[in-house]
Amino acid sequence: VFMMHWSPNDKHLLLMARKTDQRWAIYMINADGGHLHLVDPENRSQADPGWSPDGKSIVFGRLPDLMSEASMPKAIYIYNLESHKLTRLPGSTGLFSPRWSFNGRYIAALSIDQSRLMLYNMKTKTWRTLAHKSIADPAWGYNNQYIFFHDFVQPSQPLYRVNIKTDKIQAIANLKDLRVADAVDYRFAGITPNNVPLVDARTSTANIYTMPIPRR
User: Fold this and answer.
1) In sequence order, which residues have a C-beta less than 8 Å from that of residue 22 and are 6 or more positions away?
2) What are the tens digits of pLDDT across the range 128-141?
3) What pTM was estimated for this model as a whole?
4) Distance (Å, rounded) from C-alpha 137 to C-alpha 151?
5) Which H or E run includes 171?
6) Which pLDDT score is estimated for 71?
7) Cross-strand partners of 146
8) Do 168 and 184 meet the contact criterion of CB atoms below 8 Å apart?
9) In the sheet where 12-18 sits, what is the strand order?
10) pLDDT(68) > 60
11) Which one of 58, 95, 154, 194 counts the least CB within 10 Å of its CB?
12) pLDDT tens, 116-128?
């Protein structure tokens, strides 16, 4: 299970998941529990779902070849939950990992090689490049002014934010000082409502054990 997002009305949880020996797909579950509901039963892998601000549509993309159907075209799609209509976002070929802004004006996405952060204007229906780095896990700030992301290639694994109005990129933190004995890696996990980065630590603890050997 990846990419869990609450609906704007807090009644549903949207996520991508994969059952054993099946493709990645987008599911929804009610906040009070129940069964997983498959959103769109198409015969292709789906990934990185996100809500529209009104909760009536979702945006999603495809997975890189390593995790899904190789040599299949990648693009960004909008799925209307009421009409069940699937629309391909113009000019989104070769992009994945979309993020819809909270005000609904923009959709951010990554190039499939994760070297470019792109921004789609819903009004003008045009794309532009915001950043050209090693980019992972983009997340909108709650003021709709910044997009935060993680540079996973640099040794210090810095966190950046880019101003969508000025295109200015600012380093806001690095993860080298977070290293502790049982943390082997970190992942940028999102933003709090007051725009503080959340970091997920992957831990691996090694222990030494003794075991008595029974006498023959």
Assistant:
1) none
2) 999 998 898 999 99
3) 0.83
4) 9
5) strand 169-173
6) 61
7) 163
8) no
9) 2-6, 12-18, 24-30, 37-38
10) no
11) 194
12) 999 999 999 999 9
Long-range contacts of 197-201 (CB under 8 A, 24+ apart): 197/148, 197/159, 197/172, 197/173, 199/175
CB 108 within 8 A of CB 98: yes
Q: Fill in the DSSP letter of residue 212.
A: P
Number of helices and strands in the chain (H, E): 0, 18
Q: At 158, which helix (H) or strand (E)?
A: none
| pLDDT score recorded for residue 50 | 94
Cα distances from 205 to residues 156, 192, 208, in angstroms, run 22, 28, 10
Cα separation, 42 vs 46, whole angstroms: 9
Those residues with Cβ within 8 angstroms of residue 167's Cβ, 6 or more apart along the chain or in another chain: 130
Report in angstroms the alpha-carbon separations of 51 from 4, 22, 61, 102: 11, 24, 13, 9
Q: How many CB atoms lie within 10 A of CB 167?
A: 12
Q: What length is written for the chain? A: 216
Tokens in use for 199? 């970091």
Average confidence score pLDDT of the chain: 87
Burial of 139: CB neighbours in 10 Å, binned 0-12, 13-18, 19+: buried
Closest to 128 in 3D by CA, of 77, 74, 75, 166:
166
- How many Cβ atoms from other residues are within 10 Å of residue 181's Cβ? 8
